[in-house]
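Provenance

Sequences were taken from public entries as deposited. Structures were produced by running a predictor on each sequence independently, with no templates supplied. The record for Monosaccharide ABC transporter membrane protein from Bifidobacterium mongoliense DSM 21395 is shown for reference.
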Amino acid sequence: MSETTKVVEGDKTKDGTFDQVKRFVARNGALLGLVLLCVVLALATPAFLTGPNILNVGIQAATVAILAFGQTFVIVSAGIDLSVGSVAAVSSMLVAYTGASMGLPGWFTILVGLLAGAVFGALSGIANAYLKLPSFIATLAMMSVARGLTLVISDGRPISTSGMVNFFGTTIVGVPVPIVMMLIMGLIAAVILNFTSAGRSMYAVGGNMEASRLSGINVHRTQIMVFLLSGVFAAVAGLVIAGRLHSAQPQAATGYEMDAIASVVIGGASLSGGKGKVSGTFIGAILLAVIRNGLNILNVSSFWQQVVIGLVIAFAVSFDTLRRKEDAH
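Predicted structure for Monosaccharide ABC transporter membrane protein:
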């Protein structure tokens, strides 16, 4: 074997190893970032790895994670849902109102909230599928409608919630219910995406809508379904918020839609659709919670926290853009 051949083979081996490492980092960047961040915070402050603080991180991540699980359906299908925060607020407000002002039993008020989330989500899906409104515009309009109805129902004031709703803010055998709900909703989302024909349709529609239509997939039904699911998950997040606060707040979950979208993108989903995993979304939500928690422990101003989160979101979207360009080549 000639020296030239050896060199070429050696270069191929190096290139192959480098490509493997690059692919591993691209696929597991969020997890690696989370581990690195936890190590840095553990070294910076001994309070970070204490049991109570870890549970606190889980509680902080729970609401955003539940919203983000619902958002994953939409982004995988090449859409975006800006209304999830407002839908969470109006759903929880309807739960509180039907319980406090109408005297309905707790279990029924919870069903009302879940149904409200489904209706708001379905309306966004119908506007996107049949009225041909871009998902950005359809959900932006729904965000305003839902938030406005929240203020109308409450007259701008908090409404106390019943005992059954407050259960969502308690603990079970030492484990906070918000964390339990986060894990349950994550499992449900993973099953839908990975083990059902509906999940396969979401990936197909997000990857190539026209090809999906020609292959017999009901694209309109899939579009409505992903927004309906996003609305239901938002309603569950609203229950968790109301349970923690023992009341429905008219300004609850304001701005949470951005954290939900960021969690999905940080977790490896593509804004162009067809790609995304619930496990990645979960890691993205935990990463954002760890950042906020760590900055709080280090006494960093809340104003600077917003700057840091904004930079993380910008980095995640930029990384997604570069990743798509590389995939195209």
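The two ends are 33 Å apart (CA to CA).
Residues 49-324 form a domain with the ABC transporter involved in vitamin B12 uptake, BtuC fold (CATH 1.10.3470).
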